[in-house]
Write a structure and sequence with these properties.
Blueprint (H helix, E strand, L loop, with lengths): L2 H17 L20 H23 L15 H16 L5 H18 L18 H15 L14 H9 L6 H14 L3 H5 L6 E2 L4 E4 L8 E4 L2 H10 L22 H21 L14 H15 L5 H13 L3 H18 L11 H12 L25
Antiparallel strand pairs: 1-2, 2-3
């Protein structure tokens, strides 16, 4: 097929999908309800055309697929899309494309795959299917994009950056029947840097006093990590767990009928307590006024942990910070350690992408990398969502 013919047919696919009110189904079975969102089909169609142009112009020549038939999405495969993602990630790393835009492109591609494989849309597929990987492969690609490109801009996040004294001010204003449990959970986040969901699902046995670390098991994306904690931090967490042993969960909430709350209800409970405490702290003058669109939230406690962690390495020299990273690696199981070391190597290649002579991380980059690792990330630039680094590009008062 000729280039323009393919682009026209892509438009036909999304027009038919709109007429039939088809929607993209997410991996968890949730329906996106595209027909209720004005202009969504047109947006997806335009994104799919952008993908097609990139594959024709950039991907196929690299894969030596010079025959015209390879312009047709019916002849694309996993290798085609993986190469496309790799090329677009380079654009992300150079600052010419946002992570959010690349994720949106992949979602459009997945919608195209789903629509083309409907029995009554045979624009590209009369007796065959578009085979570029289903939900599982899409999730793998999205995880790769997150790992390599980081998440969306911190400027778009409503979760304000926060320091530990500000976090303590909020904890001081926590009030209500569940206040002690909420305070314990927030203390855990400040000690371990764990996400709220991870802390709520944590078990008594996750405090490892033999090497002063905390086992972060139930994490976003399935990552399992052991994060170093201070001796004082281990004592505090042990106190939280004093009546619990083994796999029992110390941070639980009960409903009025005495039953245990589920994860989502527990998370919302903590979030409500923090919202009210922030209001009290601001009225008391204990917290600063934030820029429009920013709020102190539960996630801000994770950012307070990150800033405190980064600041704690300020006076370390190169050998000391490298030793700290090696200690972090020693806490991981062999499989995870290998994966993290591979990611660190990729990060080193990334910072040398446009350099003639390869260089090591600077001391400041090692500090940022160490903080990133303790947040269960592996990229230096990802920590910009959490902290203000001591580099000229960062405003020290950025929220």
């Amino acid at each position: 097929m000729k280039r323009q013919e393919i682009l026209n047919k892509i438009g036909e696919v999304f027009t038919l999908a709109e007429e039939k009110k088809y929607s993209r189904i997410k991996a968890n079975g949730e329906v996106t309800k595209m027909e209720t969102r004005h202009g969504t089909y047109k947006t997806y169609s335009n994104r799919m055309k952008t993908i097609t142009k990139n594959i024709i112009d950039n991907v196929n020549p690299i894969l030596r697929r010079t025959k015209e038939k390879y312009n047709n999405p019916r002849f694309w495969d996993n290798q085609t899309v993986d190469m496309y993602v790799n090329i677009r990630l380079k654009k992300v790393n150079s600052g010419d494309l946002t992570v959010k835009s690349l994720k949106n492109e992949l979602q459009a591609l997945d919608a195209f795959r789903q629509f083309c494989n409907k029995k009554d849309i045979s624009t590209f597929t009369k007796n065959s299917k578009i085979k570029i990987g289903g939900h599982e492969r899409l999730q793998e690609r999205l995880r790769e994009i997150k790992e390599e490109g980081g998440s969306t801009s911190y400027k778009d996040s409503r979760n304000a950056k926060m320091n530990v004294p500000e976090a303590r001010s909020i904890i001081k204003h926590i009030k209500g029947p569940q206040s002690e449990q909420v305070k314990n959970i927030l203390e855990n986040i400040l000690i371990t840097g764990g996400r709220l969901s991870t802390v709520l699902l944590s078990e008594a046995q996750h405090v490892l006093t033999e090497n002063n670390s905390f086992h972060l098991k139930f994490q976003k994306g399935g990552a399992v990590r052991n994060v170093p904690i201070s001796t004082d931090g281990a004592i505090v967490l042990k106190e939280h767990h004093k009546s619990k042993k083994g796999g029992r969960q110390p941070y639980v909430f009960r409903k009025k009928d005495g039953g245990l709350m589920g994860l989502k209800s527990s998370m919302r409970t903590v979030e409500r307590y923090v919202e009210k405490a922030v209001e009290r702290a601001q009225k008391a003058g204990d917290l600063p006024t934030l820029p429009s669109g920013k709020d102190f939230t539960v996630h801000s406690f994770r950012k307070a942990y990150a800033q405190n962690h980064y600041n704690s390495t300020e006076n370390m020299n190169r050998d000391q910070i490298k030793k700290a990273i090696q200690h972090y690696l020693s806490l991981q199981n062999p499989k995870n350690r290998k994966q993290i070391e591979e990611r660190m190597e990729r990060e080193k290649k990334r910072i040398n992408n446009n350099r003639k002579d390869s260089r090591d991380f600077t001391i400041e980059e090692y500090r940022a990398l160490y903080t990133s690792l303790c947040l269960s990330h592996s990229r230096i630039d990802v920590v910009r969502h959490y902290i203000n680094r001591t580099i000229k590009e960062h405003n020290p008062n950025q929220r």
